[in-house]
Amino acid sequence: ESGADAPRPRISVIGTGYLGATHAAAMAELGFDVVGVDTDPAKVEALSAGRLPFYEPGLGELISEHLATGRLRFTTDLTEAVAVSDIHFVCVGTPQQATSHAADLRFVESAVAGIARALSHDGIVVGKSTVPVGTAARLRELLGALAPEGVAAELIWNPEFLREGKAVEDTLHPDRVVIGGASAAAETAMREVYAAPVAEGAPFLTVGLETAELVKVSANAFLATKISFINAIAELCTAADADVTALADAIGLDGRIGRRFLDAGLGFGGGCLPKDIRALMHRAGELGALEVVGLMQQVDEINMAQRQRVVDLALQSCGGSVLNARIGVLGAAFKPLTDDVRDSPALNVAAALHLRGAQVTVFDPAAGDTARRTFPTLSFAAGTEDAIRGAHVVLLLTEWAEFLDADPVALGELVGRRTIIDARNKLDAARWSAAGWTVIGLGTRPTA
Ligand code: NAD
Predict the structure, then answer these.
(1) For 252-440, CATH number?
(2) pLDDT at residue 268 above 60?
(3) Rounded-to-integer distance, Cα 116 and Cα 309, Å
(4) Which CATH entry fits the domain spanning 2-207: 3.40.50.300, 1.20.1730.10, 1.10.10.10, 3.40.50.720?
(5) Which residue's CA lies nearest to atom 44 of ligand 1?
(6) What pTM does this model have?
(7) Is 328 left (phi over 0), alpha (psi -120 to 50) or beta?
(8) N or C terminus: fewer CB in 10 A for the chain?
(9) Which UniProt keywords apply (predicted)?
(10) Ligand 1 in contact with 178 (CB < 6 A)?
C-alpha cells in the first residue's frame, strides 16, 4: 500500500533516435513521467507533434498515446529536463570514427557532462548507449568532477538489446535486464523502473560496470560471428554443390546451435553490428586481447566479402560487365521493417553497381527517403514494378515480406530477362522458377 503511494522516479531520456525515442515511449507506457531530450530541434519538433522522424512499427502510435496521457514530452532543453527528473537515461549515438575502427564517444561524453552540470538534485545517470569497455568508468569520473557540490549523482550501465523493427516489443518485453555497477540504492531504482518486465519473467542481472559494457558488445559480436560463420559455410556449399539453407535447417535443430541468425546471404549491416565489432576490435587491441581482434577481423572480412560476391554475381549474370545494364534492386534498408540504411549491404551493392555504369533503380517500402539522402545519384522507384521494368537482372537485397510474397508471373512480364539474384536466400525458388525465372542464391544451387 505505502509503496504504491511513494512518488515514482521521474525519467529523462537523453538522445531520441531509434533507441531513445523507443525507450522514452516505453517508459511512459510503464507509467512513468518522461521527458525526451535531443540536440536536433527538427527531431524534437517532429516527436512533439507525434510524428516519428524514422520508421519503426508501433512506435508512432505509442508516442502519440503518451503525448495525450501527458506522461511523455520532448525538448531540446537539457537543463530543464534534468531539473524535473531523477533518473537520466543516456541514449545518444556512438558511431564509428571517420578515421579509425574506434567508437566516437563525443556524444556520450557531452551528454554526461551536460547532465552533470545541469543536476539540481540527486540523480542516477544510466548509460544505455553501446560503448567500448572502460568508457563508463571514465564517464563516472566525469560526472563526479562536474556535478555540483552537495548533489549525489551515480552513474551505472544498462545496455540495450532492442532490435530495429521490433523495438517497442523488445523494450517492453526484454529477454533480460542487465544492470552494471549499481549501488544498492541504484539497484532499487532500476528494479522499480523494470518491475513490469521482471514480473513477466525477464531475468534481472546485476553485474560490474565493465561486464555490463561487454555484455552488449559480446552479444553483438556473437550474432555477427554466427552470420559470418554460415556465410563461410555457404562458400563451401557453392564449391561442393551443397545447399546452405538445407544445411542451416539441419544444424539449426541442434538446441546448442539454434536456427536464428543462420541465414546465409548478403550479410549484416545497420547502425550497430558493423560498428560494434570494429569498436570491439579496436578496444581489444588496446587491451592486448589479440584473439578477439583476429576473430572480429575475420568476421568483418567475411561479411564485407558477401557484398562483393553479390556484385560479382550481378556482373556474371550480365556477361561480365554491367555497363548500361538495367538492374532492378529490391531493398535498400539493412533489414526489413526499418528505414535504417546505415552501413546497409543493400545500398552498398546498389551503389557499387551504379559506380560500374549500370542503370540501377531501387525500391524499398520504407527506406526510399533515407537511401536517397545517403546516395542521391541512384534512381529510386515508387514500387516494385517500376524498379524492375526492363531489367536485365533483378537483385533482392532486403527480404521485405512484400518482395517474398510478390507474384513472379506478373513480375516476369515486366523484366527484360527473368533472372533474379536472391541475396537473402528467402525466395520460394520453386515458385519463381515455375514462372520462368532463374533464381541465383548464395550457397544454393541456381534454379533455371
Ligand atoms: P541515433 O543516431 O538514431 O540517435 C542518437 C540521437 O542522439 C540523435 O537523435 C542525436 O541527435 C542525439 N544526440 C547526440 N548527441 C546528443 C546530446 N549531447 N544530447 C542529446 N541528444 C544527442 O542512434 P541509435 O540507433 O538510437 O543508437 C544510439 C545508441 O544506442 C548507440 O550507442 C547504439 O549503438 C545503441 N543501440 C542502438 C540500437 C538500435 O537498434 N538502433 C540497439 C541497441 C543499442
Answers:
(1) 3.40.50.720
(2) yes
(3) 49
(4) 3.40.50.720
(5) 160
(6) 0.95
(7) beta
(8) N
(9) NAD, Oxidoreductase
(10) no
